[in-house]
Amino acid sequence: MTKIHLPHAGIVLLVGPSNSGKTTLINQLIQEQQIFESEVVSSDQFRVLVSDVEFIDWNRRPKYEADALFYEYQQISKEAFEAMDYIIAKRCRLNKLTFIDATHLRDYEREKYLQMAKKYHVPAIAIVLNLAETELLRRDLERNFPRGKNRIKQQYQHFKKTLRSIKKEGFRRCYIFGEEELQVLNVNRLGNPLLIDVGNGIDFIGDIHGCFEEFSEILLKLGYIENEEGYFSIQKGEKSFPLGM
Q1: What SS3 state is found at 14?
Q2: CA distance 221 to 215
Q3: 158 near 128, Cβ under 8 Å?
Q4: Global pTM?
């Protein structure tokens, strides 16, 4: 069984060409209640949000028309990623986990999220879906909006370069899965390392600036007990401290 260890907070980057199964994997994890739907952002989702369009097909069009459609798609994608990155940054600041469903086939696309994770002090991990080019092309024929043979082949060439470099790019963990490994995934969500079980809590005591009587009154209200030696403790036998140190 293939295991994925998810951090409590941070960025999970899905990496792979179109048709490699990124969205299918995400939906599977949501269905199995291993991740929340709110933890996922996708480039297709944000293209629709900013433009009402998920994909523009410029294949088999006259050149002047194809160029215009390609330019329109590039502008939509630019706005979509800016909006998406804004949300991801907000989630990082709030110490949340975010899955990013996009191809991420170029090193500068991945580096952007590594820098974001570094800025907000959260880990970044990569889940790479490594499927054969023939399978990617076969799946493309079954899509509602096929990406086209040339586009898939071009993406696959970029992906082969990604496989050679991604483990050296600085991700906390980098998982590379083939089609068979994706069938038997086990997800382990790590707890928040900053949360410590301290029972009833910890009282932090700073400089009391000579306010002896006021401080003594506060300690008594908090449940501390003063012994004959002038030491305060919560319960008998626990570590105590002398007032005035």
Answers
A1: strand
A2: 10
A3: no
A4: 0.74
